[in-house]
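COURSE: Structural Biology Practicum
ASSIGNMENT: Worksheet 4, Part C
STUDENT ID: 0417
INSTRUCTIONS: Below are two proteins. For each, the amino acid sequence is given first, followed by its structure token string. Answer the questions at the end about the second protein only.

PROTEIN I
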Amino acid sequence: MDLDLRKLRYFVAVAEELHFGRAAERLHIAQPVLSRQIRSLEDELGAEVFDRGRRGTLLTPAGKQLLEDAVPLLASAQALVRRVKSSAQGTQSLTIGFMPGITVTPAMVAFTAHHPNVNVRLLRTTWEDQVAVLLDGRADVGIVRLPIDR
């Protein structure tokens, strides 16, 4: 079985919103289309990932496991695309993610002195995305503030 990343993205949106209507709006698709895609994903996986009841939409144990595994998988897929595009441009680059208040200039100057052919970019991060930028490939390295979700 090949896993469809689009369906996985749809699943993550519903899992994060716990509401098909809001997830459909977020994804800019019609709710019936989203529902069909989630049913198709459940059929492919052989497991229900949502409990659709009077209390609303809840994750099943299988859905919780899928969400735990899907988020880093989608981040890796995004990182792969970014790395391939960067490689196709033929220019080596290094993107450093950093939190405000952390001084990275001396390290950047030292790196560029030793590697003048590498394009160094700085990416300011926040508490909410300092790990996400590493997982999805927006940054190659990160200078983070603890604690972080490893």
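PROTEIN II
(use this one for the questions)
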Amino acid sequence: MEALIYLFNIIIAVYLFMDAKKHDKNPWLWGILGLLFSFITLGIYWIITGKKLLGWLILIAYIVWIILGFIGVVAVGMFDALN
């Protein structure tokens, strides 16, 4: 599972590095940010470069995913505390 996450990060970083040149953005900056923060960086990049709807969808979906994961961790912790 972790390998899949790393693969997504690498794919996003390579995409951002290659596409940043087309939009006169710093490819190294966007590539590194994409490697570290993946979908958040991708969403922000698409918002900045004019793909606003797709960027906002990615950004909101990723934030919801993080919130649901946090709620799941808290719920499991509470369930374990009750037993």
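ANSWER KEY EXCERPT:
Q1: The chain has one domain: 2-82.
Q2: Residues 76 and 82 are 10 Å apart (CA to CA).
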